[in-house]
């Protein structure tokens, strides 16, 4: 069943001399349960595309459909619910909050969804355990390695039981061992039915994907189904 579809998607920054056409009429269909990897050279528009798919950004032209519904017909509240409850986000730079412990970082999305404290703590502990970090619950990000920070970020992305994970170069700042750990976690989530859309330029990870979308200069130049 189609989960997300984009038709004729354009993204343009600036005007006149400063105009940059970043996405040039993209078309893509993503089914529920897929593991999509978007790849291509630096600057080809991968992150921009991912941000639009995750409703973090809007196109200048074209349409994003979620479950067949035009996202332009969704209210701001519906879009926020998609970001906050249906989706989980993982970024290259982790984006943890430095003044919060690992446990509190994982609790945060549940706070935004107004879950009560005892539930939050129980679930955050369970999630940290699932990423092998139960002993690091009270550590702050600066007391963790890059790989550990990314595992906290994955636990945080899972806090509200998302149906889809958007991951932008999640292994980009990690050594290969930590990178493989992160990929194995994403694979396990995919095995459990979560849809994954991931941007990477590391071609070795395309073996995890059900669909590889190759981009170049703002266009999709190839789609390979595995
Ligand atoms: N806010 C912005 N204003 C102007 N140009 C932008 C903006 N955001 C991105 N761009 C430009 O859009 C192009 C695509 O950027 P994007 O980050 O999507 O590429 P990418 O493929 O993810 O690159 P990388 O692999 O290096 O992260 C780049 O040329 C970038 O400079």
TrEMBL record:
Protein name: Phosphonate-transporting ATPase
First-tier enzyme category under EC: hydrolase
UniProt superkingdom: Archaea
GO CC term, one of those recorded: membrane protein complex
Alphabetical UniProt keywords: ATP-binding, Hydrolase, Nucleotide-binding, Transport
EC number: 3.6.3.28
Species assigned in the record: Methanothermococcus okinawensis (strain DSM 14208 / JCM 11175 / IH1)
Residue ranges of domain ABC transporter in the record: 4-226
GO molecular function, one term: transmembrane transporter activity
């Amino acid at each position: 069943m189609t989960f997300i579809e984009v038709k004729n998607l354009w993204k343009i920054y600036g005007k006149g001399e400063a105009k940059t056409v970043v996405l040039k009429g993209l078309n893509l269909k993503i089914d529920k349960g897929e593991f999509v990897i978007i790849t291509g050279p630096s600057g080809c528009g991968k992150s921009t595309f991912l941000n639009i798919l995750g409703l973090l950004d809007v196109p200048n032209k074209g349409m994003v459909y979620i479950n067949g519904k035009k996202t332009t017909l969704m209210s701001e509240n519906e879009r926020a619910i998609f970001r906050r409850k249906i989706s989980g986000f993982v970024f290259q730079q982790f984006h943890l909050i430095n003044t919060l412990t690992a446990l509190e970082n994982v609790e945060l999305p549940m706070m935004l969804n107004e879950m009560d404290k005892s539930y939050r703590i129980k679930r955050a502990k369970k999630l940290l355990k699932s990423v092998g970090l139960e002993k690091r619950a009270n550590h702050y990000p600066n007391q963790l390695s890059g790989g550990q920070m990314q595992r906290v970020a994955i636990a945080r992305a899972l806090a509200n039981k998302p149906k889809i994970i958007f991951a932008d170069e999640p292994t980009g700042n990690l050594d290969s061992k930590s990178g493989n750990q992160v990929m194995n976690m994403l694979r396990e989530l995919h095995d459990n039915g979560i849809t994954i859309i991931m941007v990477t330029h590391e071609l070795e990870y395309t073996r995890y994907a059900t669909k590889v979308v190759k981009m170049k200069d703002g266009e999709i130049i190839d789609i390979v189904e595995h």
